[in-house]
Amino acid sequence: MLKKRIIPCLDVRDGRLTKGVKFKGNVDIGDPVETARRYYEEGADEIVFYDITASHEKRGIFLDVVERVAAEIFIPFSVGGGIASVADMRAVLLAGAEKVSVNSAAVKNKGLISQGADAFGSQAIVVGMDVKRTTATPEIPSGYEIVIHGGRTAMGLDAIDWAKECERLGAGELCVNSIDADGTKQGYELTLTRMISEAVRIPVIASGGAGNPLHVLEAVVKGKASAALVASITHYGEYSIRELKEYAHAHGAPMRLEW
Fold this sequence. Notes:
Elements: E1 5-13, E2 16-21, E3 24-30, H1 32-42, E4 47-51, H2 54-57, H3 63-70, E5 77-80, H4 86-94, E6 99-102, H5 104-108, H6 111-120, E7 125-133, E8 144-148, E9 153-158, H7 159-169, E10 173-178, H8 190-199, E11 204-207, H9 213-221, E12 227-230, H10 232-235, H11 241-250
Parallel strand pairs: 1-4, 1-12, 4-5, 5-6, 6-7, 7-10, 10-11, 11-12
Antiparallel strand pairs: 1-2, 2-3, 7-8, 8-9
């Protein structure tokens, strides 16, 4: 049986680790490289880094941070934010990342997904999906809409349709972030996560809302996700990666426990 994964998410702004609620009110909470090293030592399966203002500010990715992280940890990590071309992807991968995550740029230019998959393989291409609940319409039948630019711009695009299109274009993985749940610590958006997990054959990462070990377990069992992204509950020391994995494993979700 495939192991489920727990993946700490590190949002980075101006080279510093930051965290907010529903993409707002971000505060500085430390050094991303030191935090990545701690998560690696705790047994994280992977780590995700997002440069959270790169797309909005129309600037490139933080390659210096990527290089420093690559020298400190020895598990896969992906990098997103401000990646708008195959050249950007290549720069991030050469700096030491195993995967790139595209979000806003892919929505505006879906050919970026297939171009990246052709150049580097589907396993290197993660599509980040920022999703908000909305009123169901003929254009958005699921009631879940794709938004971009850190939640600032609604696209009139149904989240389930977009997930299927990303898979068709060659994405190797989807990271589904509920903006409604993000940072609230009230639990993942399980309906959204399950709908997308059932709609595609590629791995789905649940993101947004983890507040305790039960939430993580629910994401990979009820939500049918392949992995759960965590941030607030581990950044602030409420739970360690080890504690989350041991709880999930003990309650029926297979986890990698040896490290």
